[in-house]
Input
Amino acid sequence: MISKSTTFGLPFAGPAVPRNRADLEAENAVLRAEVARLRAGEVPCEPFQRISSGGHFLWILGHSGPELRQQLAASAARALDTAERCVVGDHEAVQQHQRDRITKLEKIVDGLRNETRRLAQISDGSGRGVALALAFRLSQAAA
Output
């Protein structure tokens, strides 16, 4: 007779006692169905191939030893945590805002450099001092 596991309610072979053929065939069918359920969605991949789908991830988990499964699970948990923090912190929007600010500041600096060149070229020399001071400040800001 097939006994029931107390873990997850899955059937398994009980103590090693002789059983009849029908019980063994029934147990075999249950175990094969469970293996099929666990393997559902797997997509075979080569060793060291980039994991590019959930199916690859499932296949690697199903065909790896306990240590690698633990490493993959820990890595996935870290990635999910990072993704959640990005969504909660709206990092993409913040990064885009910072990129926009950098672009605006770069335009201002370019304008100041152009003004520095223009002042330095004034023929009477009146703009030279201002141009040198501005060029000095710009070089300090860039460093």
